[in-house]
Amino acid sequence: MRSRALNAKKGGWNEENMSQALDDVLNCKMSERKASQVYNIKRSTLKRKIKEIKEKPGLSSSDVTKPYQNVSTKIFTDSEEKCLVDYCVASSKMGFGLSRIKLRQLAYEYAIKLGKTLPHSRSGSQSPWEINKQAGVDWLKYFLARNVDTPVKEELRVQQTREEIKKTSHHEQKEIATK
């Protein structure tokens, strides 16, 4: 049994405090240590956010103030995700809707083609995306939550739809031949 009280401040900050702390530190109004005390943010978290802003040009404090829940699994930009959604919609309209597995494989191939940085594994080994040659389940979950209008079919329904299209086109071909 654990006999000591937990005292971690994990995630004890809000977006407004983080944004203000980042602005104060980046504009040299306050030191990192002082800002972490004043705004009740862990210093390591504040340092990581400052590093993100400094490493990526064009990134502002408002871009990194959100907690990492959904941000860490977002690999593509909004326009790149829109391309994926448009592809899913187009293939669905043609009767070849993508299953969840095919969508994950497509996302992996798209990320490789665009030269995206793939999510890493915690153990420091090869990326799970590279091992499985497909995007992760978490990525798919958050992708579908962000893009609700994405048509994704279950594998069985995709197979049934394809068979129905084949039967319909074969039946229509027979009718045309008999006329």
UniProtKB/TrEMBL annotation:
Residues 15-52 form the HTH psq-type domain. InterPro entries: Homeodomain-like_sf, HTH_Psq. Gene3D superfamilies: Homeodomain-like. GO terms for molecular function: DNA binding. This is HTH psq-type domain-containing protein. The gene is 20211853.
